[in-house]
Amino acid sequence: NAGVMQNPRHLVRRRGQEARLRCSPMKGHSHVYWYRQLPEEGLKFMVYLQKENIIDESGMPKERFSAEFPKEGPSILRIQQVVRGDSAAYFCASSPPFSGGAYTGELFFGEGSRLTVL
Amino acid sequence: DAKTTQPPSMDCAEGRAANLPCNHSTISGNEYVYWYRQIHSQGPQYIIHGLKNNETNEMASLIITEDRKSSTLILPHATLRDTAVYYCIVRRNTDKLIFGTGTRLQVFP
Prior knowledge:
The complex is a heterodimer of chains A (118) and B (109).
Chain A: E1 5-7, E2 10-13, E3 19-24, E4 31-37, E5 43-50, E6 53-56, E7 65-68, E8 75-79, E9 88-95, E10 108-109, E11 113-117
Parallel strand pairs in A: 2-11
Antiparallel strand pairs in A: 1-3, 3-8, 4-5, 4-9, 5-6, 7-8, 9-10, 9-11
Chain B: E1 9-13, E2 18-23, E3 32-38, E4 45-50, E5 55-56, E6 61-64, E7 70-75, E8 84-91, E9 103-108
Parallel strand pairs in B: 1-9
Antiparallel strand pairs in B: 2-7, 3-4, 3-8, 5-6, 6-7, 8-9
């Protein structure tokens, strides 16, 4: 069972361009979480999605950032008109459905996508 | 989520036990204590979690005080590869993870 897959692992964009980061959750996982880690800082929650629904976007910047988790395919974090301050590592995590006695609350993280804005 | 307090950094000699404390005095009855770690720029890694009882797995042991206001993560035989930032997080198991500043553990030879 493959882990959480994120791509690209490294992405370079110039100011004003768009960045798209993809996250494929573990098989059978229906919940996806995105986190951002600025250089030398901690992990900050951005958004929590279930299939086709945004559940909690309290950590998303109000402009330029959007996320989706379609019925088919990976979750996408989209950053429009990138600025230098968007340079960071973006981590995705997934978890299985909450129902069932085996659910432990563990989130499984990918290795991250590192965005550099020139 | 209840707030946690951890020391910013700790050192440990290789082969010794590393005991990482965490205070969570405002924890609610339905909140668990989770521990994660992040090894230099990698994705966070789950270590262990517990509600009331002490827990042990192949990575670590978790000791939770009877009043649940504090806990200790124990790495029984620390290795250089255990050098990482360790996060103690208190949450209901269906909540998102909120990371604090954690404890930077340095294991030295």
